[in-house]
Design brief:
This protein has 155 residues and is of the alpha+beta class. It is built from four helices and seven strands.
């Protein structure tokens, strides 16, 4: 892993002005990407939405999380292909967990494709445990794919 010094990264709340770059990454990483409308809705309702940029203002990665009544749900965490394996996903995850703790969250949940082993390894590094399986949760080429439901107890 070739890590970029974190001082060259900037963490900022996601703003509609970031969406062009966020969508570009979303479409490059996911076969079934979120729409612009989904991102706008997340910003409109006030979900915890963050971008990591470089010193030029280019978006390198992003994350979105909802929080309510002691529970958080990580909705999307994504890093551009050329910046993966440099610690950006861990940087974003640490920040989301800090935000969750500050919001008195006791349980953080997420879904991940059963085929996405790199993401599963990331979540395992942070102590997430398998809670269940959602059958046919994600759209996939030729049908649907199951999702693992993972949880992290913050108590």
């Amino acid at each position: 892993m070739s890590a970029q010094p974190q001082e060259l990264w900037r963490l900022a709340p996601m703003h509609p002005s970031h969406l062009r770059q966020v969508l570009e990454i979303e479409h490059r990483v996911y076969t079934f990407p979120w729409s612009e409308g989904i991102f706008h809705d997340c910003l409109r309702v006030g979900y915890s939405s963050w971008v990591v940029t470089n010193t030029l203002g280019e978006v390198l990665g992003y994350a979105l999380m909802s929080m309510a009544v002691g529970e958080a749900h990580i909705l999307n965490l994504c890093v551009s292909p050329e910046h993966q394996r440099r610690g950006i996903a861990q940087f974003l995850m640490r920040h989301l967990l800090m935000v969750a703790r500050a919001g008195n969250v006791t349980l953080v949940l997420l879904e991940v494709r059963v085929s996405n082993r790199p993401a599963q390894r990331l979540y395992e590094q942070f102590g997430f445990k398998r809670l269940g399986l959602r059958k046919n949760y994600y759209p996939a080429d030729g049908g649907r794919e199951d999702a693992l439901v993972l949880g992290l107890d913050l108590v």
